[in-house]
Amino acid sequence: MASSQQGHYLDFLDHVFAEGFFFTDDPFGLREPFLDEITRAVYAPPFEGQQATYGSILLARELDHYKELLPSFEVFRDDHPKVRNLADGSYVLFCAAADFRGLIALDDPIVDELTAFTLRDDAVFRTQNHHPDDGCDPWDEVLVVRRDSSGGVLALCSDGLVSFGSGHWAFRPYQYRYQAELVRAGVPMGLWDDQIVRSILRMCVHLLGPQPGAGGTFVLLTERDEIALGMLAGDDAHTSPCAINFSNSYRLPWNPSVDHRKCQRPIVHLLEHTDGAVVIDHKGKIAGIRCWLVPPASGASTTHSHGGTRHLSAQSFSSGIEGLVFVVSADGPLSVYSNGEKVVSTVGLLET
Can you give the pTM of this predicted structure? Predict the structure, then answer.
């Protein structure tokens, strides 16, 4: 492509980021090279007759600072333009750090949005004394740009994910923005370990949400819910106004917990290919997949619900439990229901 076209695209990106108030705080001076990398990914030329793929990572500090934070990698210091042809966006990334320009070869490849998010999230926050659930800004910064084989470009910055494809762009917040909103909505988050809620949001926002045509429901119960539903061993009393039908559900033999990352992808895979909900107990264990939710006979009014059957069922069921119901629509947005009300949604976050 002509350099003038890339120059026009840079102007377009600058407008997009200014209009969306993305990356307004740039203490490390990474905004300009970040926009350059997005433009480079969008205009990546075909390589050896194949659809171009590309990936890069921008680091705010010296490369040695991240060696214990990123998946183990080999380093190739070379800034020749042709070197970028080897940056396939999966196993090899072009890297620009405070003291380095070249390639890094990852042991754990980037295969989708979830792995790109995990790479950035771990590198930025693993050694800090906080996680960004409270909305605080990181003292470090890692930016990731990836072009996949379809030509779509995903850019990860401090504010969230910005995707570009087919002449359009879209912004989505990270998982921890949802958790912060749950706290602001008054949801009693102390009923569960933080990592349980964080892991459910991780699956909803970064694994299930980006899958076209997918969707699903997660139910997170409290200990009181489990007692009322008669789920605890030796407890035959069922006092809850709603019920969960486990008769045709899948119970995974290794009794996984949602906070084990290696279990999250198989859980979502099963959810994508079955109906029903994933039910999670207060300790984060999977009680069942493909469970049918039976709302209270006099459930919450759904007069103001704008969702389909999945959302109507979730909203009504949530009115009979103390816990939360997470619903991912087939087109990607997430809604979280509590006490018969929608307390957090992707649409709501984008409007604020």
Answer: 0.89
